[in-house]
Amino acid sequence: MGLKFRGGLIGPKNIGHDVTLEEKQNDTEGQPQGVLGTDNNKELDPTVQPAGATGSSTSSVEEKKDLQFGVQVAEATLQVWTREHLIAAYIMMWLINFVNAFASGVAGTLTTYAVSSYSSHSLVSTTSIISGLIPGLTKLAYAKYMDNFGRPQGLLLAVSFMTIGLVMFAGCNNVETYCAAAVFYYTGYSWLDFTITIFIADTSKLRNRAFSIAYISSPWLITTWVYGYACDSILDGMGWRWGYGILAIVVPVVCAPLGALFYWNQRKAIKAGLVHVKPHGRGVIQNIVFYGREFDIIGILLAAAGIGLFLLAFSLYSYQTEQWKAPLIICFFIFGGLLIICFVVWEKYFAPITFIPWYLIKNRTIFFTYSMMASIYTAWYVWDNYLYSFCIVVYNLSVPHATYMGNVYTMGSTFWAIIFGIFLRYNGRLKWPAVFFGVPITVLGVGLMIKFRQPDVNIGYVVMCLIFIAFGGGTLVICEQMTVMAVSKHKNIPAVLAMEGMVAAMGQSIGSTIAAAMWTSIFPKKLAEFLPADAQSSLSDIYGSIDVQSSYAVGTPTRTGIENAYGATQRLMLITATCMYATTWFSTFMWENINVKEINQFDGAVMW
Question: Which residues cross the membrane (predicted)?
C-alpha cells in the first residue's frame, strides 16, 4: 500500500490543513492549543464559557469556548504574562534544566553500579529499554492531561513522578525495583522537558526558537564538569542510595518556583474574568470512564505491553538456559506480537479517541522527520549504551574522566546548538544544513570509531570521533524540532512534539534492544575466546559485573582478554549503527525546503 502525502512531494503544507506555506505565514500563533486541535463533537472537560468577553479577537474566549479547560486557560494566561514574569520564567527554566542535567547525569552514571550490585551489569540495556519506552508512549497522554487540567497541574505531575522515581532508586533492593524506579524518574523527566519546550514554543518567535531551545539546554555545558566528581564522591563515600535520596529533595525544591509562577498567572487570568469554569456534573465513575477514553488508556496499555514484551525478549533471552527456545522468551514474542496487533485493531476500529494523531503523520516532512529520528536514535543507542563501561574497563579511566568521555557529545552538541541557533536566526534554512553537514559528519564520526574504538588505539582518536558526532547531532536535533514546528499550525505543535518524543523513545528502545541482543550474544563468546585458561571459570562473574571486570590489573592476561572482548564486540555494534544512518540521510533529503525567516508568526506574549 502506497503512502499518500497531502499535497504530493513538493510544496510545503501545514499539518492537518490543506493550505500552502504562504497562507500559513499569516497564521497567528500567540496562543497554545490542544494536542489534537479542536473537536467540537466530543465531550470536553471542564467546559469553559466566556465571562463577559466578546469580540472577534483570536484570543476571544467566546471563539475558544469549546476548547478543553487546560488549553483555554493557558491561552488566557498568555494574555496576562508580563515581560518581567517571562524573564523570570526563562531564568527558572534554566535553573531547572541545570538541576535536571546534574540529576540525570548522576542517575545515569549510578545506574551502572546499582545494576552491577545485583550482579546484573548486562541489564543496563534492559533498563534503558523500559525507561525509554514508557515515557515516549505516555507523552501524548501527558499532553492531553495538560490540555484538560492546565500547565501548572502538568508540571506538578511531572515533578511528582521524578521525585517518586528518585525515592524508589534510593530504597530499591533488587534490579526489578530499580527498573520500576527508572520508569517513574525518566517519565517525569521527559514530561518536565516537554512542558518547558511547549512553553518556549508558546513564547518565542520561530526564527528565535532554535536559540531559545539551545539556551535552555546550555546548563549541560556546566554540569558535565561537575557531576562526574559528584558520582565519584558518592560512590566512594555515602553510596549511590544516598545520592538518589539527596536528589529526591533538591529536584522538587528547585521546580517549585516555576510551578508557582505558572499557577499565579493562571489564577490571574481566571480572576480577570477571561475564563469561567462550569462544573461538568459527572460522578466518580463517569469521570474515570471519561478520562480513560480521553487519554486512550487501553491503547497506551496495549502498545506499552506489546512493544515492551517484544523488545525485552531480545534483551533477556541470554539469561535463559534454553535461550531463544526458552518458554518465557517464546511467550514474550507471541504475546507481545498479539498485543501489538490488538493495539492496531483497537486504534483503527474501536478507539473513540486515538492517542496517536495519525492524520498529522500524513505530512511528508513530518513523516520523514520521524523516520530520521527513529533511525538516528536507534543507531545512537546501538553504539552508545556500553561506551561508559568501555571507558572504565578498556581505557581504565576514573569515574569523573569516564563521565567526561560520555559527555563529549553533550558538551559539543549543546555548544554547537547555540551557534546553529544563531545561524538559523539569520539564514533560516533547515534542510540543507542537515543533508550536507549534520548527517555526513555524524556518519564520519561513527564510522571512524569502527577503527579507533579499540584497546590498542589512543583515546584521543575516540574523542575526535565524538566531537564530529556532537556537531552533527547538535545540527540534527535542532533541525528536527524546528522542522516539525515550522510546517505545523500552532495548535498542532504539542501533538507533533509529543509524537516526536514517542518516536525518539521508540528509537531508544529499539536501539537498546539491538545493543542488548548483540552484547548478550557476542560478548560472552568473545570473553570465552580471549580470556586465558585460568580465568575461564570466572567468565560468568566477569560478564555480569563491571566492578569485577575492572578489578583485574591492567596488563594482566585476564584484563587484556576482557579488553579485547570489549573491542571485538563494540566493533560489530558500531558497524551496525553506521549502516542505519543511510535511513537518516534519505529522510532529511525528503524534507521540504523551509526558511523560518519567511514565516511570520505571533500575536501574543513573546519573550523575543
Answer: 87-110, 122-142, 154-171, 183-201, 213-230, 242-264, 297-320, 326-346, 366-383, 403-423, 435-453, 459-479
